[in-house]
Amino acid sequence: MNGLMTASGPVVGLLLGLGFGFVLERAGFGSGCKLTAQFRLTDWSVFKVMFTAIVFAAVGIYVLELAGWVDPASIYVPIPYMWAVAAGGVLIGAGFAVGGYCPGTSAVGVMTGRIDALVFLVGILIGTFAFASLFPMLEPLTTAGELTKGDRLPELLGVPEWMVLAVLVAAAVGVFYLGGWFERRARQSALA
Fold first, then answer.
1. In this structure, are residues 79 and 147 in contact, taking their beta carbons and an 8 Å threshold?
2. Which one of 31, 85, 140, 142 is separated from 191 by 20 to 30 angstroms, measured CA to CA?
3. Domain range holding 173?
4. Residue 75 CA to chain centroid, in angstroms?
5. Tens digits of residue pLDDT in 69-82
6. Cα(24)–Cα(110) distance, rounded to whole angstroms?
7. Per DSSP, what are the bridge partners of residue 53?
């Protein structure tokens, strides 16, 4: 029983995963239709939820750092490799658009009995094993475009952290407004 119930133990991880999956399913994110509607610009709920989580976490960590509760040096920030990030973003975005799922929502879909989610999850596994087997050839591409100026946006851009956070919050407000506009427009088109 030693270590099973610690914050990084497998039991806590399993419970958090089950809770996260439950919330995803209740929000409708276990359906491939939800993600594909995002790409059709008719339902922005996935983007709104994800962007809200990013902004909330970024502002929350900043506030905790200001309060002295979190040491910024204790937060691991991986080295950004821009070409790898760009290629990964394009590939994962294409997978979302074609399959209608991301890795997490596909697992939720499988648990609720969706066959398309199972096919998507099998595709993720095949792709993962293919990438792993080809990794020796692809490794130089995964480290291309290394940013050496700074690990985080404030250092990279040479601006204070609060300024980056202010832009993020403003972008979130803009995304909510823009998303609402697209959603209203889609509903009006459906009624016409």
1. yes
2. 31
3. 26-78+151-192
4. 18
5. 988 888 888 888 88
6. 12
7. none
